[in-house]
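Students often ask why inverse folding is considered easier than folding. One informal answer: many sequences map to the same fold, so there is more than one right answer. In these notes we will look at a single instance of the problem. The structure comes first.
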């Protein structure tokens, strides 16, 4: 059994870090579909993923994958083939709420970190079409950079219930933000909010990087700030929201 596990890990590493460009962009999908889903259906094991959920079928399932290059970094990946933020299926009510699922699965970070991280340590992001390397939709689950946390907290009073341009840049990029006044992400559907409120049409969704950051509002109510970075809206914007993340989690302790 140990030999079999090592063999699977070896295959996963080959798929994830293939040097051939034609294969590299599909590496994540091949790991999830060809290894994790296959192993789960055949053996009942999610390996090399952390988790595979198929209770409602593969069309509504997902996997949680640990990034092998960074210690405190996981990805939530649909088991349905979806290219990315521009996929029109994300605007349909029948499509799973992947951001909500990512938030529910955030505690995979705690298991690696060795203790429970505070709520305000987490962040969820997805890159724009031009800001990503993989051709399968995935949401990053990681810690937020401490200086980004401080910046958002400073600007929180000026962020409203409608889209507001943040006065301070985040990692040099100009974000729009809005308040989410609930302590979970059930029914929030960030893709739908951006697609219907910010994107001029369906094809424009490819320009947007999306981030969700937990916050504590002035009345001590737990909530979130939904962030949108539209590539090329201003000079420095790339839609690469992943650069908000800290894969060491050093800035957050209990």
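Output (designed amino acids):
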């Amino acid at each position: 059994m140990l030999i079999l596990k090592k063999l699977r890990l070896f295959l996963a590493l080959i798929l994830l870090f293939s040097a051939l460009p034609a294969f590299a962009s599909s590496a994540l999908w091949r790991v999830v579909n060809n290894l994790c889903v296959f192993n789960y259906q055949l053996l009942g094991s999610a390996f090399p993923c952390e988790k595979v959920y198929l209770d409602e079928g593969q069309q509504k399932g997902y996997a949680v994958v640990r990034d092998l290059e960074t210690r405190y970094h996981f990805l939530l990946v649909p088991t349905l083939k979806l290219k990315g933020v521009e996929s029109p299926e994300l605007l349909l009510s029948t499509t799973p709420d992947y951001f909500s699922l990512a938030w529910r699965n955030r505690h995979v970070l705690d298991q690696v970190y060795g203790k429970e991280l505070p709520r305000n340590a987490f962040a969820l992001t997805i890159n724009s079409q031009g800001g990503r390397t993989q051709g399968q939709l995935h949401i990053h689950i990681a810690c937020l950079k401490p200086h980004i946390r401080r910046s958002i907290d400073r600007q929180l009073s000026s962020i409203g219930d409608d889209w507001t341009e943040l006065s301070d840049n985040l990692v040099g990029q100009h974000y729009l933000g809005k308040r989410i006044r609930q302590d979970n992400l059930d029914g929030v559907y960030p893709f739908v909010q951006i697609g219907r409120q910010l994107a001029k049409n369906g094809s424009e969704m490819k320009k947007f990087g999306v981030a969700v950051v937990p916050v504590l509002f002035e009345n001590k109510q737990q909530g979130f700030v939904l962030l949108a970075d539209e590539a090329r809206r201003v000079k420095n914007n790339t839609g690469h929201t992943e650069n908000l993340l800290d894969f060491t989690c050093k800035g957050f302790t209990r």
